[in-house]
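Hello Y.,

Per our agreement to keep a running log of every chain we model this quarter, I'm adding this entry. I've kept the format consistent with earlier entries: sequence first, then predicted structure.
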Amino acid sequence: MSEIILQMRDIDKHFSGVHALKSVQFELRAGEVHALMGENGAGKSTLIKVLCGIHQRDGGEIQYFGEPVSFANIAESQKAGISVIHQELNMMNHLTVAQNIYIGREPRKGGIIDDRKMVEDARALFERIGVKIDPTVTLGSLTVGKQQMVEIAKAVSHDCKLLVLDEPTAALTQPEVEELFKIMLEMKEKGIGMIYISHRMDEINRISDRVTVMRDGEYVGTVNTKDVTKDDIVKMMVGRVIMGEQKEASCVPADAPVILEVKNLNAGKEVRNVSFNLRRGEILGFAGLMGAGRTEVARALYGADPKQSGEIILNGKKVTIKKPSQAVECGICYLSEDRKRYGLMLDKSVTENTTIASVDDFITVGLINDSKMREASAETNALLRTKTPSMEQLLKNLSGGNQQKVIIARWLMKNSDIFIFDEPTRGIDVGAKSEIYTLMENLTKQGKSVIMISSELAEVLRMSDRIVVMCEGRKTGELDISEATQENIMKLATMREEN
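Predicted structure for the entry above:
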């Protein structure tokens, strides 16, 4: 039995109106990967923030290498050898990659920051973890996935004894995931303990030694990974078994009209001559590897990014969409993959976030009817089972999954006709995934249409009626769900252009 390096006993934490942690237990051994699981809002991230000093616990005890500890802030926990990769990126987009990695501990020469050595150290670090990123570029110029890899590199750069990984693979490609797992195995051999938070069951079964499950802020139990099935863990998390099989045939009627046509869309190198159509009541999946151009297609269609050429035809009529407000007027809404940057107002209430796109509907004689806004917001969020103590709760106090539901509620209230979901279940648990799947299916039953961009092939195969596959900015194929398999999707997703 390995040495116990972390023991958390009876941890309690309260926020305004929310009992976030209720007598939670957790243990970590040296050289162990211990998965921490639960639905969004279960308290996983809060427990980690208590551990590393972002939040102060209201009750309970933490022992680290056998000694009681209470870190006042994250700097103290880092000094003690605890590194955390948070689910939400906490880096500075205006600084370079190297500056982000070594900020606060920059190498110096004669009292002056040695930029050359900092870049060299960052480059060596990337070589160590098998990632190709230029340390001199600004962080904001990178994709979400690359930014996540920078944060992973930053955590690895610390001489850590305990590493926490909170949804580290949510934005990574499969090769990047493989590199991360190689690093984790090396760290295990060095006796480093790791807390691994993920909703991807295949990862949990593959990488973890034990699993601790939380539900509604409470400890449910701890099991050895090798002794339980995927369904056992899901049942512990949500109290029920959730099954999901590949869709066998399209649910779209043969005579369903085409409501959207995109012809020869071009937007820089990322979108090259892309054409597709969308039918009423259809879920059109977009598959491809990271960098394939799927998000860029959605943003060009929505008017968030400029397009060089191409036509957008809505219900048989050509439309001009140069900015998102024009897309919204056309009945098109977009749920971004980077919701923290493009979708959320964290310091505003649930009501404000839900109704921001529909404010005009609540104005009478020049005045906003606040009570009607709260009532409509509550009704719409209730449909999604958004967990919040009130509609006036600030969005930053909700879990990541519930923040996501609020954005979906925003577009439900706007009564859009075409919903573009970009990585709709990224970083959320199986229970919330099931609810979002049901939501998308219900939208199509109401005659709405959905464009779903997803990096999870199982999700694409479960939800789509038809699948558009992209590679390097080009559409490389289109498959009816009845003929789609993971193998033929991946073949199209790696079909590079011949020179």
